[in-house]
From TrEMBL:
<dbReference type="Pfam" id="PF09335">
    <property type="entry name" value="VTT_dom"/>
</dbReference>
<keyword id="KW-1003">Cell membrane</keyword>
<feature type="transmembrane region" description="Helical">
    <location>
        <begin position="50"/>
        <end position="71"/>
    </location>
</feature>
<feature type="transmembrane region" description="Helical">
    <location>
        <begin position="172"/>
        <end position="193"/>
    </location>
</feature>
<keyword id="KW-1133">Transmembrane helix</keyword>
<protein>
    <recommendedName>
        <fullName>VTT domain-containing protein</fullName>
    </recommendedName>
</protein>
<dbReference type="InterPro" id="IPR032816">
    <property type="entry name" value="VTT_dom"/>
</dbReference>
<dbReference type="GO" id="GO:0005886">
    <property type="term" value="C:plasma membrane"/>
</dbReference>
<feature type="transmembrane region" description="Helical">
    <location>
        <begin position="12"/>
        <end position="30"/>
    </location>
</feature>
<feature type="transmembrane region" description="Helical">
    <location>
        <begin position="140"/>
        <end position="160"/>
    </location>
</feature>
<dbReference type="InterPro" id="IPR051311">
    <property type="entry name" value="DedA_domain"/>
</dbReference>
<keyword id="KW-0472">Membrane</keyword>
<feature type="domain" description="VTT">
    <location>
        <begin position="30"/>
        <end position="161"/>
    </location>
</feature>
<keyword id="KW-0812">Transmembrane</keyword>
Length: 203
């Protein structure tokens, strides 16, 4: 995949970075941890400008958030609440839980979007709850852009400094993303177990 990413950037230049980052947000298996360090390496060779690399990476990342954001808007809180009330018992999930989660996102959504854009594994998925909670698009784009710019800067800068060893960035970041996903899975499992215990105690 690294060779394909490099070839696309070599042939399309800055547009290739933008396109790859859009795709990365819609299809997470194409990691930004590979795209941006590769572009940073190209900048270290003098083939690209580092500031433009970060700019195009940020723009592509922000544009890539829009499909899932609009999918969340289209699905909406009310549809999700109705679905949870009808089928959620299998997951110990109710419409009330969905509304609580939506209220939480209304209060903390800006921080979630800002910092979540720098967390591998969940950075793309945050667009869905942002859309479902009807976070205003301008606010969503601003915080997505800030978070994405910081993430793109770190990755491109690492690739710039590491030079030909830019591919090591992905190896450094991969364990972090696995830890984050593991923590989220454990947290979800604990929440479900507590829900079941409280329901059993109440019945």
């Amino acid at each position: 995949m690294a060779e394909w990413v490099q070839n696309l950037m070599d042939s399309m230049g800055y547009l290739g970075i933008l396109l790859l980052m859009v795709i990365e947000n819609v299809f997470p298996p194409i990691p930004s941890e590979l795209i941006m360090p590769s572009a940073g390496f190209a900048a270290s060779r003098g083939d690209m400008n580092l500031a433009l690399v970060v700019l195009m990476g940020t723009l592509g990342s922000v544009l890539g958030t829009l499909p899932l954001y609009y999918l969340g808007r289209a699905f909406g809180e009310e549809r999700l609440v109705a679905w949870a009330d009808k089928y959620g018992k299998w997951l110990t999930l109710s419409g009330k839980d969905i509304r609580k989660a939506d209220d939480w996102f209304d209060r903390h959504g800006t921080k979630a979007v800002l910092f979540g854009r720098m967390v591998p594994g969940i950075r793309s998925l945050l667009s869905l709850p942002a859309g479902m909670s009807e976070m205003p698009l301008p606010k969503f784009l601003i915080y997505s852009a800030i978070g994405s710019a910081m993430w793109a800067s770190v990755l491109a800068g690492a690739g710039y400094m590491l030079g030909e060893n830019y591919d090591k960035v992905e190896h450094y970041v991969a364990p972090v993303s696995k830890i984050v996903l593991g923590v989220l899975i454990v947290a979800a499992a604990v929440w479900f177990m507590r829900r079941k215990r409280s329901q059993s105690a109440g019945s």
